[in-house]
Amino acid sequence: MILAIFDVDHTLLKADSLKLFGLFLWKKKGIRLSHLPGFVASLFAWCLALTDTGKLKAGYLKLLCGGMPVSTVRELGREFAETLLGSKVFPQALELIHRHKTERHEIVLLSASPDIYLERLAELLGADMLICTKLSRASDFLTGDLEGGNCKGREKLRRLLEQYRELNIDWSRSFAYSDSLSDLPILERAGRPIAVNPDRRLARIAVRRRWRIERWDT
């Protein structure tokens, strides 16, 4: 099996999906004021390098949807994916997904963003697998916490390898697309790494290692 692995934010999409989702939810439902002090505290700690982005993300998600019914947020997530995210997908990404599917490659979306709207985006794009940050549930409500932590950096690679551990993956012929140095472990694992609109640090590495660099239209 050959994988075609796509990072989502700023690779598959032209924007940061979580920021867009926050604005979307704020317009639809407002913010959870009871969680505002916790978010401010986590933001302050993050600015002082006293906590990681996972804690900051959890505080942000609690502010957006902590305590809301799962069914409500899932429906809003579907609406968000269908009405806003679809227009943010790079045309080049759509062409590549079609090409990879024609060649019977497994399409994997691998993201630090949450499942609550990425599940619908994966369906819309015809992805075979979604690996991403998951929101914790308590009964039928979202807590805003991250189930299993933040799916970022080496955690992305760990979850990817765990998901496909029992399958015969041809890593040397598999593809990985990303814009960010944080996805270096994924790019190094795939035999065909592609830096898409890379940040400065990733661009330097891609040039040094002679990886393919693509500039997709914004």
Model description:
Helix 2 (17-29) packs parallel to helix 4 (53-65) and helix 3 (36-47) packs antiparallel against helix 4 (53-65). The model has no long low-confidence stretch (mean pLDDT 88). A seven-stranded mixed β-sheet has the order 4-3-2-1-5-6-7. It is built from ten helices and seven strands. It is α/β, with parallel strands linked by helices and 218 residues long. The longest helix is centred in the middle third of the chain and has 14 residues, at 70-83. The chain has helices at residues 8-12, 17-29, 36-47, 53-65, 70-83, 91-102, 115-125, 154-163, 184-189, 200-209; strands at 3-7, 106-114, 129-138, 141-147, 175-178, 192-196, 212-214. Helix 7 (115-125) links the parallel strand 2 (106-114) and strand 3 (129-138). Helix content is 49%, strand content 20%.
Proportion of strand residues: 15-25%
Task: Provide the gyration radius in Å.
Answer: 17 Å
Strand count, sense and closure of the main sheet? Answer: 7 strands, mixed
How are the strands ordered across the major sheet? 4-3-2-1-5-6-7
The sequence of SSEs as H and E is: EHHHHHHEHEEHEHEHE
Number of strands: 7
Give the distance, in angstroms, between the N- and C-terminal Cα atoms.
Answer: 32 Å
Low-confidence region ranges: none
What's the shape?
globular
Discrete helix count:
10
